[in-house]
Design the sequence.
């Protein structure tokens, strides 16, 4: 039994014990946070208190440097299966509940859209289309009328649902340091039958859902010092075979975040219910700087490994989050890749935007 299978068995055992108590540029970054904690994409080690809950909405947008028609045609001539994606949007609803002071469970349900997918015609497809019913070949005429690059349209639909847990196994009150175990599962609730504008089914890596059950686990650590906060986490996802006999590849996320809390001024407000004046804090502001790393294996299909998928990317992001009222917060984050080490030929990301709103109860 190899190490990977042993790791999967160990992860399943850990998850059961605790619970009993796509191409890289085409996949939104996994974010378990609801936006009310110190970091955004980075996962904090501080869970919700027992009985607390949160509900959040997030929009993530990744804009890519698209491949040109010339590039698509060139690699098609080399029999490389290359496609270009203009952008990836992910709209998600998430929630979390503090079961105990050290154990939080949550979920995330996304709607994913890959926009303006393009692909070069393959020569064998053009030849197949260059015959009429009588079997006569009109190769030159067909190619003359054939567009060199196909506009396949968008692939959109419900994505895979993530259910996760966070167990804080160590903390120091005096030093305000915390460490937590992260674990969970991604269920194949997403759409896997999206079709192009020509009625053909998109390949598995372009579908909103994966069709596979994937386990993941990781660690998180947090440290506060006055208004400053530092958070870091690692998270590894084990991909299984899903739709179209395809595995989208394991994923390793590594994140670092530095946050600063700037409180608003205290002003006198009047409570009309009990007619007493009292102090109420204005909106507080959080300023956040993050490094978000995302490494992915190559996609493995029935016919073999796709060498134009997977790789490593690191985003540098700056964010701002106002918090007000009784548990309300909103946030906006803008990020650019500072490392783009992708395998083969892919659409490379150039900008990532995140914004959302959440409410704690």
Sequence:
């Amino acid at each position: 039994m190899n190490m990977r299978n042993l790791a999967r068995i160990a992860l399943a055992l850990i998850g059961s014990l605790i619970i009993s108590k796509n191409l890289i540029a085409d996949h939104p970054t996994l974010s378990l946070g609801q936006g009310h904690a110190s970091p955004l994409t980075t996962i904090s080690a501080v869970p919700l208190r027992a009985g607390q809950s949160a509900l959040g909405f997030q929009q993530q947008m990744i804009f890519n440097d698209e491949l040109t028609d010339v590039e698509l045609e060139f690699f098609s001539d080399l029999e490389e299966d290359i496609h270009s994606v203009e952008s990836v949007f992910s709209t998600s609803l998430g929630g979390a509940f503090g079961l105990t002071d050290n154990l939080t469970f949550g979920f995330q349900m996304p709607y994913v859209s890959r926009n303006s997918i393009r692909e070069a015609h393959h020569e064998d497809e053009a030849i197949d289309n260059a015959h009429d019913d009588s079997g006569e070949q009109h190769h030159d005429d067909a190619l003359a009328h054939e567009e060199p690059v196909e506009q396949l349209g968008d692939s959109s639909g419900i994505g895979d649902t993530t259910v996760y847990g966070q167990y804080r196994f160590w903390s120091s009150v005096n030093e305000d340091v915390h460490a937590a175990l992260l674990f969970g599962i991604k269920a194949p609730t997403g759409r896997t039958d999206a079709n192009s504008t020509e009625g053909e089914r998109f390949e598995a890596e372009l579908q909103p859902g994966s069709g596979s059950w994937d386990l993941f686990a990781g660690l998180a650590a947090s440290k506060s010092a006055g208004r400053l906060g530092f958070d870091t986490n690692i998270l590894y996802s084990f991909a299984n075979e899903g739709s179209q006999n395809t595995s989208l590849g394991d994923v390793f996320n590594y994140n670092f975040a530095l946050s600063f809390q700037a409180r608003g001024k205290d002003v006198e407000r009047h409570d009309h219910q009990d007619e007493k004046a009292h102090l109420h804090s204005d909106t507080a502001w959080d300023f956040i700087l993050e490094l978000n790393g995302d490494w992915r294996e190559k996609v493995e299909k029935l016919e073999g490994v796709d060498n134009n998928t997977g790789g490593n990317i690191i985003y540098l992001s700056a964010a701002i989050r106002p918090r007000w009222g009784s548990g309300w917060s909103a946030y906006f984050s803008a990020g650019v890749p500072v490392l783009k080490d992708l395998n083969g030929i892919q659409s490379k990301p150039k900008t990532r935007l995140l914004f959302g709103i959440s409410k704690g109860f």
Q: What stands out?
A: The longest helix spans residues 3-20. The helical segments are 3-20, 69-77, 123-128, 139-145. The mean pLDDT is 82. The radius of gyration is 24 Å.
